[in-house]
Each structure stands twice: as structure tokens, then as C-alpha cells.
Design brief:
With 486 residues, the chain is α+β, with helices and mostly antiparallel strands. The protein is 63% helix and 14% strand. It has eleven helices and six strands. Strands 3-4-5-6 form a four-stranded antiparallel β-sheet. The longest helix is centred in the middle third of the chain and has 67 residues.
Length: 486
């Protein structure tokens, strides 16, 4: 009768407990991959990088080491890369993005770990025992009677935490907030990579423009040197002017070679930001001036930044996680209601047949004193919550300061670019007029040399102004959290 009753119990009640738990587990696992709509941006370029449109061989890699990447990553020798292709390659190749993705998967595993308290614990064991019993002396008074029993029995134990005053639920919510924070941090990592690549891209572009400007300066000094040589042969000038022309020409060569080394340094920096090995075949498309959108509403920009910055959203979720963790530690001090089922099937060698043992129990567990362990854990969680709150406030203040600084830096860069263009035009015309006057004997070589130096300075300032405008724009769109949209 006991065996029939237990068999009926297993048929009628155990499935009703196990199947809903399995459905909840499957549903919970699916929900881990379905983040709320506000959990970050969906980056289309990342999906392109993951799908991979063709297989190519990167520089300095053998054909056996091919990698599937997006269509934006082509042989560097085919054509120069624009900014979008460079960012596309960085998303696929930069190890920082992979590290952030694995950190996010760790948060997913932590979420699954926190949900383990919602499911029963099932353990199976196989036990064996040997019992010997010594009896009274025998009839002859010397030998003792004894009995020996060998017992082997499998056992299964099912334990389930029925009620914990919300401690398990708060711990699960804390892990969910930590998972959302990791999701936002992953999006922020993508923006950080795009920001670093854009900065390196424009630095390389500025270095290439500096080489071009120094090349023009070298041509100007060569023209001045030729003119000084002709006048010196004709006896119309002294040797001092010729030596000044030669010194200016040598200084122009020095500046050109220095700028060429700066190009290679910027190329190495760009390759590092892209996550590839450096190669001389890495070339970029020179940037062109584009109209900057009108942005006069400072308060609107700061509000957009506070709403869109992924690192700020991550810090908000970290604060929520610490709040749930603090509540969980508080509820953990209350009692816990447990239910369990233990079943075993025993076999004794000397006794025929099998013996079945079943036990269904409920227990109330309450740690009345644990050496202030849980109290200390609750205090630590409360302090961590306060720290997270201050970090959130610090991050918000930093973002507001960054937007303010980069906004006015960009407006200043726009005005500086206009002034640099006008200065370069004036210096070029002045050098042309001075060169013509020097050829006609109406101007001294000192005037020509000064005009050439002013033109060289104006060209370099124009290059710097264009770089400041590009870098200022990158700074502003990054600080507002819209770098992947612009």
C-alpha cells in the first residue's frame, strides 16, 4: 500500500511541479536575450560584421588564416578606406569589442545563476553499508554468536525553497539590472571604439595634409632659392641672401621629413585603434569639409546627452542593481520555508525482497545568530548603493561639462577655420606679389623670405584649423552619445 501511494504521488503531483518549472526556465532563458527597448542601440554595422559578406585576407596574414568579415573590409591595396569602412573593420577586429561581448555573456550567466534559487535541487546518491552485530557467548562458553548485514540502496533527494520573504526575487532583479548595465556598457564600448578610430583617422588625415602643405612650402623655398641664385650670378644681390635662401630650403626639407614621420606614427595609431597589424598599405581617403549642423541650443544638447549616453544608462542600472542587492540582503535575515522529498530503495543481502522508503517534509529554517554575518553583508550592500549613487551623479556632471566644453570648442573651430582660410589666401597673394616684385628688383630678398614664411605658417594653421574642426565635431557627437548616428 505504501508503494502504491507513493507511485500515485509521483504520477499526480511531481509532474505538476516539474513541468511548470521547466517552462519557467525556458521562458526565463529566452527573456535573457530579449532586452527592453531602452537597453541600448541596435548597431547595424555590427550585424554586418557578424554576418560577413565575403572572405578576405588581412595584411601580414597568410591565406590559410582567412577571416570572415563584412564587405567594408577589403584589401588595403585596392583603394583607400573612408571613415565608415575603418569603423566597420574596427568593430570586427578590435579585441576590445570582443572583451566587452564576453563580459556581457558573464552577466548573462550571473542572471541564470541568480534564478537557480527558483528551481528545486535534485541530488542522487548510491549508498552502501555493512553492519556486524556481536551476540552472547555460545553454548560452550567460548564462541560468540554474530550477524552481518550488507545493505546497498540508491537515494534521491529533492529540496525546494518555498518562501524567503522576497530575498530570492530581489537577488534576481539585481542580476537583471547588472545584465542591463552590461548591455549598455557593451554599447558604450562600441562608441568608444568608434570614437578612438575617428580620432586616429583625423589625426592621420591631418598628418597627411601637413605633408602636403610642407611639400608646397618646399616648392616655394626652391623657387626663392632659384631666384636668389639667378640674382647672385647676375651680381644683383649679395651672398647673404643666397645663404638665407639655402637655409630656408634646408629648413623646409627638415619640416617635410618630420611631417612624414608623423604620418607613419599616426598610421600606426590608426591600425592599433582598428585592431589590425600595421602595414604601409593602410591608406585613407582625405576628409573633405562638410557643413556642420546648426546647434545653438546648449540645454537641448545636454538633455540629449543625459538621455542617450550609454555609460550613464549603465551607471543607472548599476545603481538599481545595488538597490535590489541591498533589499535582498535585508530579506535574507528572515526565515526560509523549505519543502523536500527523499526516496530510497534498500536491499539487504540476508533478507529477501526490496524495502522502499519515502519521506515528504516541510521545514522552517531561521539563523537566529550567525556572528553578525548577514548584518555586515547588508551594511556593505547599503554602502555600495551609496557609492553607486555618487558615481551616477559624478558621471552626469562630467557629461554636462564635456558637452559644454566641446560645444564651444566646435563653435570656435568653425570661426578659426574661416579666419585660417582668409589668412592663407592673403598670404598666398602676398607671396606671389612679393615674388614678382623681387624679380623686378622692387623688393628685397628679406621681404620675399618673410612672405614665404608667412605663407608657410598660414598653410600649417589652415591644416590645424581643419583638424580642430573635425576633432571638435567628433568630440561633440561622442559626448552627446550620437557618434554612431552621425
Amino acid at each position: 500500500m505504501e508503494f502504491v501511494y507513493i507511485r500515485t504521488f509521483f504520477r499526480n503531483y511531481i509532474p505538476s511541479l516539474i513541468f511548470p518549472g521547466l517552462l519557467f526556465c525556458v521562458g526565463g532563458c529566452k527573456n535573457l536575450q530579449m532586452f527592453p527597448p531602452d537597453c541600448g542601440q541596435r548597431i547595424s554595422k555590427i550585424e554586418k560584421c557578424r554576418k560577413g559578406e565575403k572572405r578576405v585576407t588581412l595584411p601580414n596574414e597568410t591565406s590559410a588564416n582567412e577571416t570572415t568579415v563584412s564587405g567594408g573590409e577589403k584589401f588595403f591595396s585596392d583603394h583607400a578606406l573612408d571613415l565608415y569602412e575603418v569603423i566597420d573593420i574596427a568593430f570586427a577586429r578590435n579585441p576590445v569589442t570582443k572583451i566587452a561581448w564576453h563580459q556581457k555573456q558573464i552577466a548573462v550567466a550571473q542572471k541564470l545563476k541568480s534564478e537557480s534559487t527558483f528551481y528545486p535541487r535534485v541530488s542522487v546518491s548510491l549508498n552502501g553499508a555493512r553492519a556486524e552485530q556481536m551476540g552472547a557467548p555460545g553454548a560452550d562458553g567460548r564462541h560468540l554468536t554474530s550477524s552481518c548485514k550488507n545493505t546497498i540502496f540508491p537515494q534521491i533527494d529533492i529540496t525546494y525553497s518555498l518562501f524567503k520573504f522576497g530575498a530570492h526575487r530581489e537577488a534576481s532583479l539585481a542580476a537583471l539590472s547588472a545584465l542591463r548595465a552590461a548591455d549598455f556598457q557593451f554599447n558604450q564600448t562600441l562608441q568608444d571604439v568608434a570614437y578612438g578610430v575617428a580620432m586616429a583617422y583625423f589625426f592621420l588625415d591631418s598628418a597627411m595634409a601637413t605633408v602636403e602643405a610642407n611639400g608646397r612650402n618646399l616648392e616655394d623655398t626652391r623657387v626663392a632659392l632659384d631666384a636668389a641664385n639667378n640674382r647672385y650670378r647676375s651680381g644683383l644681390t649679395n651672398k647673404q641672401d643666397l645663404l638665407k635662401a639655402q637655409a630656408a630650403h634646408s629648413a623646409a626639407i627638415f619640416n617635410l621629413e618630420h611631417s612624414r614621420s608623423a604620418v607613419e606614427a599616426a598610421r600606426a595609431q590608426l591600425a592599433n585603434a582598428m585592431g589590425i597589424r600595421i602595414t604601409d598599405q593602410l591608406c585613407i581617403v582625405g576628409s573633405r569639409e562638410e557643413a556642420i549642423p546648426d546647434m545653438d541650443n546648449m540645454e537641448q544638447l545636454i538633455g540629449e546627452a543625459l538621455a542617450r549616453r550609454q555609460d550613464l544608462q549603465s551607471q543607472r542600472e548599476i545603481l538599481r542593481s545595488t538597490e535590489h542587492a541591498w533589499k535582498s540582503k535585508g530579506y535574507d535575515r528572515y526565515p526560509e520555508v523549505l519543502v523536500g522529498l527523499s526516496a530510497s530503495r534498500r536491499k539487504v543481502e540476508e533478507i529477501p525482497g526490496m524495502y522502499n522508503h519515502f519521506e515528504l517534509y516541510a521545514a522552517l529554517k531561521w539563523d537566529l545568530f550567525d556572528g553578525f554575518l548577514k548584518k555586515s553583508e547588508q551594511l556593505m550592500a547599503h554602502e555600495e548603493m551609496k557609492i553607486a549613487h555618487q558615481r551616477l551623479r559624478t558621471k552626469a556632471l562630467d557629461i554636462g561639462s564635456q558637452v559644454w566644453e566641446y560645444f564651444y570648442a566646435l563653435k570656435s573651430a568653425i570661426r578659426k577655420l574661416d579666419a585660417a582660410k582668409e589668412a592663407e589666401n592673403c598670404a598666398r597673394e602676398a607671396f606671389s606679389c612679393t615674388q614678382e616684385a623681387y624679380g623686378n628688383g622692387l623688393s628685397s630678398f628679406t621681404d620675399l623670405l618673410m612672405a614665404q614664411n608667412e605663407l608657410s605658417t598660414a598653410r600649417n594653421k589652415l591644416v590645424c584649423a581643419r583638424n580642430d574642426l573635425a576633432v571638435g565635431w567628433v568630440h561633440l557627437v561622442y559626448s552627446t552619445g550620437k557618434i554612431l548616428e552621425q
